[in-house]
Design brief:
- With 125 residues, this protein is mostly helical.
- The chain has one domain.
- Helix content is 62%, strand content 8%.
- It is built from six helices and three strands; from the N terminus they run αααβααββα.
- A three-stranded antiparallel β-sheet has the order 1-3-2.
- β2 and β3 form a beta hairpin.
- α1 packs across α3 and α2 packs across α3.
- The longest helix is centred in the middle third of the chain and has 20 residues.
- The chain is globular.
């Protein structure tokens, strides 16, 4: 599913305040921070963005789909109102095998790696 659709759905679910979704997003966010995919500094400034990225991963898991990144172009992210840092975060997630790609970068269809799947399987059971 398109990354921008996943981000939008994650934003909506976080705004609704679903406790289960929020807990899963918090768990994924903790993993992303511990693996240095997203920085732990400046949480007060970028915390919402980081949680939305984690939420998009949870949304992909819930829908049993891939995270499709058709464009890495910064202008596209700006056009849709999303931070251009998202590509950097996804690249780091690929480098740490949290997301799996056909290339060494976040491009095309990204699937969830074993670590994320294990945690999401555990918490959704």
């Amino acid at each position: 599913m398109n990354l921008f659709v996943l981000l939008q759905r994650a934003r909506e679910r976080l705004e609704k305040g679903s406790p289960e979704f929020s807990d899963s997003a918090d768990t994924i966010l903790a993993i992303l921070r511990s693996q240095e995919v997203v920085p732990y500094k400046r949480r007060s400034v970028n915390g919402e963005l980081h949680k939305m990225v984690a939420g998009a991963i949870v949304e992909a898991y819930d829908r049993d789909t891939t995270i499709d990144l058709a464009s890495r172009h910064q202008g596209t992210f700006s056009y849709y109102g999303y931070s251009t840092k998202i590509v950097e975060y996804l690249d780091k997630a690929v480098a740490k095998d949290l997301l799996l790609s056909q290339t060494s970068k976040a491009k095309g269809k990204l699937s969830l790696g074993p670590l994320l799947l294990d945690y999401l399987d555990y918490y959704s059971a």
